[in-house]
Amino acid sequence: MTAILSHPVRRLAGTARVPGDKSISHRALMLGGLAVGETRISGLLEADDVLATAAAMRQFGVSVTRPADGWCVIGRGVGGLIEPSRVLDMGNAGTGTRLLMGIAAAHPFLTFFAGDESLQARPMGRVIAPLAAMGATIHARSGGRLPLAVEGTADLLPIEYRLPVASAQVKSAILLAGLHAPGATTVIEPAPSRDHTERLLAGFGASVEVTATADGGRRITLEGQPELMGRTLVVPADPSSAAFPLVAALIVPDSRVVLPGIGINPLRVGLIETLVAMGGRIAIENRRVESGEPVADLVVETSPLNAIDVPAARVPAMIDEFPILAAAAACARGTTRMQGLAELRVKESDRLDAIARGLGAAGVRVRTGPDWLEIDGCGGPPPGGGGVNVHFDHRIAMAFLVLGMACRQPLTIDDDRAIATSFPTFISLMTGLGAQLETVGTAAC
Ligand code: S3P
User: Fold this and answer.
1) Of 200, 226, 252, which residue is a domain's last?
2) Is 305 contained in some domain?
3) 194 among the known binding-site residues?
4) Looking at the structure, do residues 249 and 150 belong to the same domain, yes or no?
5) Pair 201, 214 in one domain
6) Residue 379 lies in a domain
7) How high is the pLDDT of residue 365?
8) Backbone angles phi, psi at 328, to 5 degrees
9) Which residues form the active site (predicted)?
10) Annotated binding residue at 349?
11) Number of domains present in the structure of the chain
12) How many angstroms is it from 428 CA to the middle of ligand 1?
């Protein structure tokens, strides 16, 4: 593992081409594999997590190739996958694992899933319960953890399932299983979570009905056993990756950064709404729709930020953005309060804990509870000067490298490896804007 020192910088400027959306990339490969014929994908994220899904689809007998002009998937049709001859090594990819478990549940063979230490610690019971109710048998380590085996069935039953927490991963696992079941599968979510699966399913030719529930949630009904047709897809740039250069441009002095082609799905823009409410100058230009997803160019300029209370209702729309929001809050004037964050404890790391410790290392005052976080902003550059343990979490690593750019003294992260799971070009992209990220050798654990 390599430690990286992030130096304070005077300004950031330029155009940042952020790689493709991770959530959409996983789903494009999976649905391409379940469609009939050829799916051509441009802008697919070529990062470890998505490459693990591509390898898994190949194990299921799907042709996944990478010609010069993008990615090409030749599907086997709904229910047409074959038994993998090896354990699927999903690395760090929680989304890939949970969604593929839904697909594996609908096939009459055994699929074995393994992952790295972080993935092995993540709860899979939330996916196991609905898939078991549909008729699959799942053998998992105690606590519903990886490694696990899904014993699927060709006779999956459609269900109506009420999600205990708003989770696009669990919703999508059920919908992908339901795709193979006769009749209608319905998922009711307590609050709307990212809807890329629903949009893509409709785009591939499935019938999906979405209605609002009286309590602010959504009811999604999918008709099972459609014939999905291969298609051409453009994956927008990932708003969750764009969040890092975006916040960097806000908190580093005299900066102006353009971020072209960023996905602005309304269920992903919670961070932008929050930063605008804090005083961030973020212009959203050239709004358009690509492959069924709203996209725009963002222009971001350095802004004095003021603390706010982030409404709990906004959490699902910015679930992955709290580490980088914490960096912005550390530079803001006043105390930023965030609540409803229990899910952050079961992400790639315990993010509430990792954020609190990292901010402490940067000399920022922070308080945290079971599901909340309060950050006393420095009203300008935080002290910095410390070392941050990133717990093999890509978003913790990138958030603290960004914070280091705006501190008075440099910040060090202990391990850069996880960045490759979602944003392999992060270091070169940020350096191109003016960041000074120095490799300081191999850190001890
Ligand atoms: C994702 C959903 C979110 C998010 C994850 C990607 C997806 O997880 O944190 O990074 O692609 O469906 P949950 O659905 O578990 O909240």
Assistant:
1) 226
2) yes
3) no
4) no
5) yes
6) yes
7) 98
8) -65, -45
9) 320
10) no
11) 2
12) 26
**Where is the domain boundary, 226, 259, 276?**
226
d(CA 173, ligand 1 centre) in Å: 11
What sign does the CA torsion over 155, 159, 165, 170 have?
positive
Q: Decide if 231 is inside a domain.
A: no
Weakly modelled stretches of the chain, pLDDT under 50: 444-445
The string of DSSP letters for 49-74 reads HHHHHHHHHHHTT-EEE--TTSEEEE
For residue range 139-167, list pLDDT tens digits in order.
999 999 999 999 999 999 999 999 999 99
169 CA → ligand 1 middle, Å: 5
Examine the domain organization and report whether 58 and 10 are in the same domain.
Answer: no
Confidence (pLDDT) at 445: 39
With a 6 Å cutoff on the Cβ, whether 45 touches ligand 1 is no
Q: Ligand 1: does its nearest atom lie under 6 Å from the Cβ of 343?
A: yes
In which order are the strands placed within the sheet that holds 110-114? 88-89, 110-114, 145-151, 137-141
Range of the domain at 289: 2-20+236-442
What confidence score (pLDDT) does residue 213 get?
A: 98
Element (H, E) at 103: helix 94-104
Residue 249 sits in a domain of what CATH number?
A: 3.65.10.10
Quick one: pLDDT at residue 441?
78
Is residue 320 annotated as part of the catalytic site, yes or no? yes
In this structure, are residues 407 and 436 in contact, taking their beta carbons and an 8 Å threshold? no
Statement to judge: residues 301 and 409 lie in one domain: yes
Query: Ligand 1 in contact with 23 (CB < 6 A)?
Result: yes
Q: Nearest 5°: CA angle at 249, between 243 and 253?
A: 155
Residue 238, ligand 1, Cβ within 6 A? no
Least Cα distance to 356 among 316, 398, 389 occurs for: 389
Can the peptide bond before residue 147 be classed as cis, meaning omega within 30 degrees of 0?
yes
The pLDDT of residue 352 is 98
pLDDT at position 331, please? 98
